[in-house]
Structure formats: C-alpha cells, structure tokens
C-alpha cells in the first residue's frame, strides 16, 4: 500500500519524540484534510481512517448518485454511470463511498503532505518543549556546553534541547570549556517564531536563593526561609534568612561548621563573598546586621524618605562601606533604605557639598558613591586607595585633597 511509507516516516518521529497516539492521529488527520481541501475544495465528505501502529491509512470519499448529465459538484456528486462502475446495483439518490489513493492526489501533493507532516511534528515538539521549560522558570537546571560564542554560551541538555547562557548572565570569573556541565537558573522561556528560546542565568539573585534550597536541607524542608537575596555577581552577596522555629539558628545552619555548608555555594559562584544575615522586622536591628561586619554605634531612620543615618566609630567606616562600596550598596538594597554613614566624634567636619563652588558636582558624586561625603572622611584615606575605589584620576583626587586641607589650615 503506497500509504505505508508516509506513515512509517511519521512513526520515526513518533518514536523519537514520544508523541502519544491521540496526538499522532490528530496531526495525521489534520495534514491529510488540508491536502484534501486543496485538491477537492472541501473535506466535509471525506472519512479518514488511521491505524498508526500498523501503518494503515484509508481515505474514503462519500458522494450522492445523480442522473447522468446532472452532476453540478464533482466532489459531492457522482453520475449514475460512474457509480455503477463501482457497484452495478447503485441507483440515483444513494450514497457512494469510494477509496481515495495517495497516488490520486498527485506527486506534488504527496511531497507537500510529507513536508507539512514534518512541520506539524516540529511545531508540536517545540510547543511541548516550551510548556516543559515554562514550568521550570526560576528553577536550577544543568546543561552541557556545546558551543562557545562571544556573546553567549550555547548548551544542550540530555534531551538535546538548546539552552542559552548570555554573556551578561555569566559571573565575571566564569570560564567554560566544551563538554563541561553548567548550572544556572532558567530565567525566561519565550517562543520566537515556532522555536522556544530558553535563557539561563548565573547572575540572578534567584540562582543564589535556589542554591540555598538545593544545598541546605533546612531551607529545602522549609524550616528556614530565605527572605531576600541581593548580589553583585562574583563579588559579594547578602542573604537574609529567618526561621519560625526558635530552636533553629538560621545563620548557623546555613553557614555550617567553619563554613562547611556554604562553601559549595561560594565555589559555584566563583568565590563570591556571601554574608548570611538574620532577618528581623526591627528595622534598626536589620540595618545594623546588614552593615556587618561593621559595628554600628547608632541609627536615625527617616521612613518618609527611606533614608538611614548611621553613626560609626572612624575605624568601622571602611568596613561598613566595603571594597568598592559593595557592602553599603548591598546593605541598602537588602533593607530598602539609602544609608548615610557618619563618623562618631567628628565635630569639626564639613559636608563635601559645601565645596561645590571649588569641586565639580560629578566629582562630589563619585566620592558619595563610596560613602565619603565629608571633608575629613576623604582626608583620612590614602590617595592611591581613593583612585582605586573611584573613577577619578590621581591628579583630580590630589587637587580635591589640596582644597579640603586648605579649609582646615585656614
């Protein structure tokens, strides 16, 4: 039977893609009905019988017998003479069922049928992949590096699905080789045309949160809750954790003895420095904890402006700000408050903004970014350190220090 080759070609896809029987029959019937519409103008009067397991396919066209010369629609009607060639006993008004062979559709139609069949199968497969990965959004996934491009890593999972890890979703220290397994969180899944685009991220705060779930049993079991995660990927992160069971120390459980539990997570993130903090509804206490390892003397909070003025001993200021201003920036993101640092016991200090007639505002802004907003806070620093922590040239920093020193000398 000439239908068998076409059915067998479909069966190959069926075995590879695990298309269920009902879907298989639905796709086949849809493809053949489209072909019949193109050939005969309508498929309403056709019966299609499919047995994909055996490779059987039958197409039957049903027409009404009319008198010779009275045929108006050759697809719906058949003349008495033609009907009696099929079965001599047919009479006018009776229904005639006649099998249609694939060869009757023509060679071009058969080629188009196969192409349409392949297209429908790919479309079905892509839809299933989209649905599968859409449910995995926000979950950790592992795939193997297949191709390394300038702007992205192309990976394949065990099923051959393509996962994309863009450059801006990679941790700065990430370095991958072909064949290496990579973990990340499925960030987004979209259909572009008929093809699913699956984007993985290793820089998302959610990736760190999910690593806590996978590596720390108490988080996985729900005994410890990860309240919020903020990150500067590859540099530093702060994680606020809480437990509804007073017997559990959430920070201790997450870190483990000598950092044993969190070590694997740190290594996965390219030695990212992770501060685990006890969450609390007490805002002053939460800000104090968020600024760890610095020890805060006092805090003044303005809830209307979401700003907090933090007083510290001079030797604690650099700890609060952190390298590159990372610590104070993350503390602000974690708590939702803009944090201003002040030195305890500094009475004769001057706000940097007071020098706006001599120092450009953009330069003042550069110092503010790293938590230095008074004259003495800058004068306490080494020039080389200030150059490293800001985007300012050494000449600019030296000129600022000269201006500030002249204020106190006067």
TrEMBL record:
**Entries under Gene3D superfamilies matching the protein:** 3.30.300.20, Nucleic acid-binding proteins, NusA, N-terminal domain
HAMAP family given for it? NusA_B (MF_00945_B)
Which InterPro entries did the record assign? Answer: KH_dom, KH_dom-like_a/b, KH_NusA_2nd, KH_sf_prok-type, NA-bd_OB-fold, NusA_N_sf, TF_NusA, TF_NusA_bacterial
Subunit comment: Monomer. Binds directly to the core enzyme of the DNA-dependent RNA polymerase and to nascent RNA.
What is the protein's known function? Participates in both transcription termination and antitermination.
The cross-references to SUPFAM superfamilies, in alphabetical order and at most eight, read: Nucleic acid-binding proteins, Prokaryotic type KH domain (KH-domain type II), Transcription factor NusA, N-terminal domain
Its family remark reads: Belongs to the NusA family.
Can you name this protein? Transcription termination/antitermination protein NusA
Supply the source organism's classification. Answer: Bacteria, Pseudomonadati, Bacteroidota, Flavobacteriia, Flavobacteriales
Instruction: State the UniProt keywords alphabetically.
Output: Cytoplasm, Elongation factor, Protein biosynthesis, RNA-binding, Transcription, Transcription antitermination, Transcription regulation, Transcription termination
Subcellular localization, as worded in the UniProt entry: Cytoplasm
Q: Which PROSITE patterns match?
A: KH_TYPE_1 (PS50084)
Q: Name one GO molecular function term.
A: translation elongation factor activity
Which NCBIfam families does this one have? NusA
GO biological process: what's one of them?
Answer: DNA-templated transcription termination
Organism (species): Aquimarina atlantica
Sorted alphabetically, the Gene Ontology cellular component annotations on this record are:
cytosol
* All copies of domain K Homology, residue ranges: 233-306, 307-384
Does this entry carry the keyword Transcription?
yes
- Pfam families annotated for this entry? KH_NusA_1st, KH_NusA_2nd, NusA_N
